[in-house]
Amino acid sequence: MHAPRHTPVPDGTSAAAATAATARKLRLRYVGIGLWMAFTWCGEGNAPAWEHALRTLVILLILPPLLLRTNRHLTHKLYESAHPGRVIAQLITARIAAVTIAFGAGFLLGHLLDPQAARSPVLPALGFLLLLASIPAQIRHAHRTRTATTHPATQRALSAPRLIATKLTLITTALLAQLLLTPYLTDATFAVAAALFLTTATLGPKAHSRFLLTDPTPTNEKPAHAST
Questions:
Q1: For position 12, what pLDDT does the model report?
Q2: Could you tell me the pTM of the whole model?
Q3: Separation between Cα atoms, residue 59 and residue 64, nearest integer Å
Q4: For residue 197, what pLDDT band results from cuts at 50, 70 and 90?
Q5: Cα(108)–Cα(222) distance, rounded to whole angstroms?
Q6: CA separation for the pair 97, 99 (Å, rounded)
Q7: Cα–Cα dist 210/222, whole Å
């Protein structure tokens, strides 16, 4: 195992800068999540509102449990590993697999609900290309994780049940909004998608800090990297 890391304790100015940087990254993260929610909702633009909601719900019920559990396990393993390259590859592969499974299930559900609908491959292909394009950023983030001064197991983590409950509330609200707007707007789907994006991007960071995070599970295990 690699030797323990010793990072100087930051002064007040450095701590404030680090806090600001963390808040900025969190805002950018929820901008990305908002784009993902809008992208998912617009997956089949002319489908009924209930089909948008059902497909999005299926993706939601599959993705967070798979992604959060796998991400937590491999992030802990990454922090403790003396040879991170293989673990980083596993982490990125697992993330891509989880997203592909979730969106594949959503696409299959849409096909089963309406087999005759014409579906363009452009949006799924674009989504997959964006996922692949995120790999360099994931690698950089993984290496930054290894420089952290605290073990990931000791940090607060996202709760999959709370995340699902929050997004379920958001999707239900979006469904009701689209049902109400459809008689009056020809592009109600895109209006609701834009509202999903704005709501997630603006309210997501606040919900993240106040509701979605849970305290770490107590453990008697000593982090492997701390051993001498």
A1: 55
A2: 0.62
A3: 9
A4: very high
A5: 44
A6: 6
A7: 29
